[in-house]
Amino acid sequence: MQVLVRNNSSARLLRSLQRLIFNRGLATVTDHTVSEFAPPTVPYAQVYSKPLPATLKLKTGQIFQGTSFGAPTSVSGEAVFTTSVVGYPESMTDPSYRGQILTFTQPLIGNYGVPGLFKDKFGLMEYFESDRIQVEGIIVNDYATKYSHWTAVESLGEWCARHGVPAISGVDTRAIVHILRDQGSTLARLDVGEEAHNLDTTNVKYEDPNTRNLVAEVSTKVPVSYNPFGDIKIAVIDCGVKQNILRSLVGRGASVTVLPWDFDFTKVADQFDGLFISNGPGNPKNAIRSVNILRKTLEIYQKPIFGICMGNLLLGMAAGMDVYKLRFGNRGHNVPAINMTNGMCAITSQNHGFALKDDIMPIGWKKYFVNANDGSNEGIQHIHRPVRSVQFHPEAKGGPQDTEYLFEEFLAQVRDAKLKQTGTKIYLPETLPKQEATIFA
Amino acid sequence: MASSTDEDNIQESHYHFNASTLALPMKPLMDSNLLQTSLQSGLSWTAKPTNTGEDDEELIPPENFTMVATWVYRSSFPKKKNFPFLKKLGLKSILTLILEDYPEQNMKFLKANDIKLFQFGIAGNKEPFVHIPEDKICDALSVILDRRNHPLLIHCNKGKHRTGCLVGCLRKLQRWSLTSIFDEYRRFSHPKSRSMDQQFIELFDASQVWKLVDKKLGAELGSIGFSTMYRGLYQRAQSPIRSTVSYVKHTQNVSAKLYRSFHHYQNSNSTTRRIIPTTSNLYRGSSLARNSSNSQFGSSTARVSYHFYSTAIEQHKSEAEPPPIYGKEVSDVILQHATKVDVKKVLVVGSGGLSIGQAGEFDYSGSQAIKALKESGIQTVLVNPNIATIQTSHALADKVYFLPCTIEYLEYIMERERPDGILLTFGGQTALNCGIKLNSMGVFSRLGVKVLGTPIRTLEISEDRDEFAKALKEIDIPVAQSVAVETVDDALKAAGEIGYPVIIRSAFTLGGLGSGFAENSQELHSLATKSLSLAPQILVEKSMKGWKEVEYEVVRDAVNNCITVCNMENFDPLGIHTGDSIVVAPSQTLSDEEYHMLRTAAIKIIRHLGVVGECNVQYALNPESLEYKVIEVNARLSRSSALASKATGYPLAFIAAKIALGHTLPELRNSVTKTTTACFEPSLDYIVTKIPRWDLSKFQHVHRDIGSSMKSVGEVMAVGRTFEESLQKVDPSFKGFQAQQFPELDEVLSKPTDRRLFAIGQAMIEKGYSIDQIHNLTKVDKWFLHKLGNIVDIQHELERVELLQNVPDYLLKEAKRKGFSDAQIASLLQNTTEDEVRATRKKHGITPFVKKIDTLAAEFPAYTNYLYTTYNASTHDIDFNDNGTMVLGSGVYRIGSSVEFDWCGVSTIRALREMGTKTVMVNYNPETVSTDFDECDRLYFEELSFERVMDIYEQENAHGVIVSVGGQLPQNIALRLHENKANVLGTSPVMIDNAEDRFKFSKILDQIGVDQPEWKELTSSEEAQDFAEKVGYPVLVRPSYVLSGAAMNVCHTSEALHKNLSEATLVSPLHPVVITKFIYPAEEIDVDAVAHKGKLLVHAVSEHVENAGVHSGDATLVLPSRDLSGETMSRLKDIAEKVAKAFEITGPFNMQIIKKNNSDGESELKVIECNLRASRSFPFVSKVLGLNFIDVATRALLNKDVPQPTDLMVEKRDYQAVKVPQFSWTRLQGADPFLGVEMASTGEVACFGKDKYEAYWSAIQSTQNFRVPKPGSGILIGKDDLTNEQDFVNLANMLSKDLNHPIYTSSPSVTRFLELRGIHAKTLDLPEDKKALLHAFKSNHIDFVFNLAQVRAQNVSDINYISRRSAVDFGIPLVNDPKCALLFVESLKRKREERAKFDGKLPSEIKSWAEYIGGNKC
């Protein structure tokens, strides 16, 4: 197994570290060098001062005309909406949004610009959840051409343009949400420039991202390690893992190894004290290989397992549950989820279009969290083994941090299990280490 | 609450009292001839524990709890048949101090229940201990105590001396165990018992006992109930007698320890948990007390009082005390008891009259709370003297008391009503402060009243800066701290701790004098020296200049579910009171990281403090890092929560009330979607901007700068989908974002005043300042400035285009999308009118779209009717088939138009709905009930401009529009609506216009033979002088253009007229002045009436207490009048009928009439004003007369079910009500507290009474910060040359001779004037130095100021101005009208006499509204 080790405390590794930071985030792990790597961007110079026309076409027939403020390219994808009021850089770089055209219900977007590429001491990005914009395009009501924030280095439009992502503003986003809500998520096309004038809806080509294996697109290609000297070793099955999930684990003292989505964990299971299954985009049925591996893992692996979002779906499928596509998905930072063990209701950050069918739970499993609004599944847990997963995002970024304690519980389970096995006292960090921002220009 | 279960558990329990815990050293039995009954051994509780489990030694036997925590009962027990309750207490003995006439049945009861009675003294001897040496008593006591090992009840009958003696002896003996004191007090608030209470506290060396409790038993007690009990005593002990500090400190330590031990018990095991005394025991105790007092003792005098008593014997040395622990324990404890609160009857405390800083938002929150309680089937009792509110309408609370929200009156009402719960967090700071005080006085525990929602302890912590800072330190949340210092050295020391740069603020209102920034110790030294010469105390704070100010509204339920409903960001950086800031919601310039950092902190705080309900957290956020500090936590509903509620559609107050009843967030529904839970965070898909409204130009000498003390009188909010749209929509009194002229622009930009937004306007639009330049001066975040820049760009572009026909389609559309009003666009173009712009844009199809405010950004279908319009959209959210009737609301609260018009609007809506008509409400004031979406069928949160109203009218295809119930604002657009073919219901707008136009109005009055004072409109100063000479002085001057100070004025001399016309106003043909003959002295009368097609239906005649010359909004009104003759009454009715007919009135109208008594006994009646709309006094007259005038008016307007005319004034009533204005002088630094023809009050209160004296007595006490002068305190009185001498002499006479107050005057001439008339007075020198001035007031014990000057002060060195202003600044009540002064002094005299004859009954004014006017009418 090839493992790339990162640790900024070691000067020896600095060169390779810088190289890594430059050319990849987690979603696209490669061992290419900088020169070999073509960034998915267009240069700054191509940011247009005069707005181009842009048109949003929905497969259901509606057309919205506005102006472009991003890249002058046209795209197609699945139109979805998020009700979050803050956190557009985090949302747009979240690998779970891969293949989607994202509508922000918050009407004023771009106010605080886009922050620079800061990295923390673990080499994880501070403000982005992956190394690139993952959404296909964005739809906003009112774009702030001029931003104001101390972390910002460029405007949202410049950032989108640099990453080749089209963006449209000046459209009635509330009307779009109405359509998506009433008719369900639909395919959409965002045309910019000349194409925007074509309002004919008959021969539009729509691409359905859910037919692609999006998980494979965003997952790491090779295993990568973080914080190698942690007291416990956690394996992360990367279906499109967010930076803050890794930070939530390594920041609490764990050593983390990120494995590709279809990596056969059972072969290395004995090397890890716990297993984590990450979030990720698209239809979980495309990741059936992960499910099979997980099913095998559940049979042989007795140590703690925790999953988030896609991880919840995959774990549920491995346990024998079915998934279905939600009509318009749950995307936002205000979703209440009730913890079935103590009845407490937490506000969670969510981003998913599929859910587990939990009306009949497989033997040995019970509901962990339930959505307080629509009653959909928000998590499952094994009745007596330390295996559980949640549909929402306890790592936040963006969104509320109310359920961060789940990471602590998971790591406590791992440490407990390890203590029982080894019988030795292990290092327990008191608090999350302070994050020191370092910038690599 | 599962009290019965607890009781069962206790009975079942196998733990028994362990005698060794409380072993008493035996003393030899001594003979004492004082003991009439021989002592008997009754050691029935010495059984050994039958079970020694592992936790045994830590457990408290339930019996023990009963013993150590039996209560002090206060009741008139011996004379009543109330012994049976002793059985419940499990008492075995009673020690009584004198032999009273115990009824036979009581003796029988004692005998039957084997309760021993011991007596000291002889019946009828009032002071039995006087001749008995203390050691004899001690001996006797020790005998009793030694022989008895079970509860002992000591009954002290009325006597302070006896109580004192006994407690003193007990203290000497240090024999506290197994002893309870049964004390009979009458009224707690009775002056006599008050002093007795104080003595009691002095004698009862509480700290000793507590130390012992703490040391000996505290840990084992583990009783939350217990700690609550003695905390009550502690706080009583804090009354300013002695050693306050040590008590407080000690309380905290003991509490902490007890809380901990309690917590420990909670966790030990389940058996333990069941038998440990908990709060439910306390509740059981109080409900027992309540029941017994109600059913067995008779309700008049029986009072069950403080729960306290304790045990302990030995002396000991105190050890190091454990550190206090705050919020966590509180919240943990609450969590353990998260069950539904068992209450049947709840008292809701209102906020009183509207004042600056405490305005209409509490009408909204109180109304919602009452709705929530009613929905849960709980009986509600509301105390609020604010008669203009909706919460005091008959439809809401079950019982309403129009009485002062003061501790004294609240206690009376609780005594009378016996509620089992109280809501304190819905009535602003007033209710909160009362609650804290009542709790510390032990009133709640005495009366068994549960404080619902956030516990008192949390409220106390959030109010106390030091405790608050300490509590937040426990959870590592940084707090902005300010240190109050009195010397320069202390200031330097404080700054050293806080860290430079610091800001210095003076603790007294000096208009910013002595405030400033200091970068280092040298600067601080010079600044502090200067400041301390001006004020006795200054505040040193860390400077956070330019930081962002952000607020979060957080909700927590009793089981710890938390949500943040809304966050808001201030446009103005830190330093300006959030009430005076422009605020946007949600925050716009915060990143996810910042937003959630502050959100997480807010939740951490609310959990730590243990808030149950709603709470507001204010932060300062460094604009260049993640550094932040908490500025303030309001653990109650606040103005911000009203704003958040309206901004999000989330019914915060309603939810908070439900949580107070024990509901959890997830179990409550989101009332907007009706399908999702209330435990979620609203997501906004629009932006809300709030702008405050100041009325500073109404005042003379007032400081216009804004800062940490709020000055605005109201606020407006607008909803849009761009910041530009919501900002420009916000106030129709301005044409969007515009420039005003400021000569010292940079100064105004850097030092904020009420007009800073327009200074930014000038800098951007006219001066071409760059964004950076403006940012450096104002520190306003550049994002806001960029957005303002977008507005300016469009303005310039429109100006460039010049002509309407040249304006391209896209520009017009863009302008509308950026919130430009038609009128604003017209003003930027050449020769264009608003109507032309409107026509053009409609031709281009540019009309607004209607969107819903649904709390969740359209994610789920919502059934809400809460709407706004926007041009940033392409579809409507709703369809328009209702054809409802539109009602225009009151708009922004300001001086002259306030909550009373909201009452009118809501009453109209309710009447319309009752008649089965669909309703559409338009209003844009977030503080109102009319903007609650459950009040009407459709609510448009929109400005009341012609453009917007017409757009909605057309879109809704409304059946008609009502303009006569929202005050002047809707009235102003009536004619234009009429001209544009809108169906204006009621009196024709043409007639409204006739009544508003002075010339037309006069002509019509002349035609119908109704008299009016002489008047003329003049265009030059000379003409004005001539006219004034002709009609004779004094004259009333009403200029159309005001340069400074108040607009209207009375001039008594030609010099004054000249001065007024030259200095304060501009007179020219363009700006004419209206001069009216001012009739003086004369009485003024208000007539409120409703007519239908010119026929008078109902009318009410209210008398002003003040003479004519005081604005009717500032006047004290008496209704029904007992002083007007029948002949006058019928002439008044005649006038009303004539006016109704002449103006063909349909709907409400109001007139002010002057009554001048001529020498021949005849009186002249002259109409001075007439408004063809509902007036300010409509709620007052409706509620006093028991007939809703608006209801009648609505029927008249709709021409449906119109009632027959009735004359309400002929009915004889055995009550009178008085309405009193509420002023906000304290907030208006420098403003002259003078009553004139220009209105100055911000609100009003009204109370009922058997006569006007009693009603006035309660009403004046309902005004904020009013205190009745203490007997014997000094009173400063003043006059000027125009003051009626007879009034002044009468006043002085009554004060000094009848009431025995030392009289002070502010000038030697006035002193001489009084001395000449045989009244002794002293001259009080009023120095200019505030410090010396305060000393002058303090050293002479000045407790009240009467200033009867009739002329407005010309400058700030006027001695009467200084007297009035000092009274306001030093918090001394001020009465500045002769008639009111006399009325008050007469009331004071009567009430003092009444209280002197104290008979144990509640004061006669303690009656509910229904009792006054007859139950069926309200």
TrEMBL record, chain A:
Its EC number is 6.3.5.5. Residues 52-191 form the Carbamoyl-phosphate synthase small subunit N-terminal domain. It catalyses: hydrogencarbonate + L-glutamine + 2 ATP + H2O = carbamoyl phosphate + L-glutamate + 2 ADP + phosphate + 2 H(+); L-glutamine + H2O = L-glutamate + NH4(+). Gene3D superfamilies: 3.40.50.880, Carbamoyl-phosphate synthase small subunit, N-terminal domain (3.50.30.20). GO terms for biological process: 'de novo' pyrimidine nucleobase biosynthetic process; glutamine metabolic process. SUPFAM superfamilies: Carbamoyl phosphate synthetase, small subunit N-terminal domain, Class I glutamine amidotransferase-like. GO terms for molecular function: ATP binding; carbamoyl-phosphate synthase (glutamine-hydrolyzing) activity. This is Carbamoyl phosphate synthase arginine-specific small chain. It comes from Ambispora gerdemannii.
TrEMBL record, chain B:
It catalyses: 1,5-bis(diphospho)-1D-myo-inositol 2,3,4,6-tetrakisphosphate + H2O = 1-diphospho-1D-myo-inositol 2,3,4,5,6-pentakisphosphate + phosphate + 2 H(+); 3,5-bis(diphospho)-1D-myo-inositol 1,2,4,6-tetrakisphosphate + H2O = 3-diphospho-1D-myo-inositol 1,2,4,5,6-pentakisphosphate + phosphate + 2 H(+); 6-diphospho-1D-myo-inositol pentakisphosphate + H2O = 1D-myo-inositol hexakisphosphate + phosphate + H(+); hydrogencarbonate + NH4(+) + 2 ATP = carbamoyl phosphate + 2 ADP + phosphate + 2 H(+). Keywords: ATP-binding, Hydrolase, Ligase, Metal-binding, Nucleotide-binding, Repeat. Belongs to the protein-tyrosine phosphatase family. Atypical dual-specificity phosphatase Siw14-like subfamily. Coiled coil: none annotated. One of its GO terms (molecular function) is metal ion binding. CDD domains: PFA-DSP_Siw14. InterPro entries: ATP-grasp, ATP_grasp_subdomain_1, CarbamoylP_synth_lsu_oligo_sf, CPAse_ATP-bd, CPSase_dom, CPSase_lsu, CPSase_lsu_oligo, CPSase_preATP-grasp. Residues 1266-1418 form the MGS-like domain. GO terms for biological process: small molecule metabolic process. Its cofactor is Zn(2+). The keyword Hydrolase applies. This is Ammonium-dependent carbamoyl phosphate synthetase. GO terms for cellular component: cytoplasm. Its EC number is 3.6.1.52, 6.3.4.16, 6.3.5.5. The keyword Hydrolase applies. Heterodimer composed of 2 chains; the small (or glutamine) chain promotes the hydrolysis of glutamine to ammonia, which is used by the large (or ammonia) chain to synthesize carbamoyl phosphate. It holds the Pfam family Y_phosphatase2. Residues 469-661, 1002-1198 form the ATP-grasp domain. Pathway: Amino-acid biosynthesis; L-arginine biosynthesis; carbamoyl phosphate from bicarbonate: step 1/1. Residues 64-216 form the Tyrosine-protein phosphatase domain.
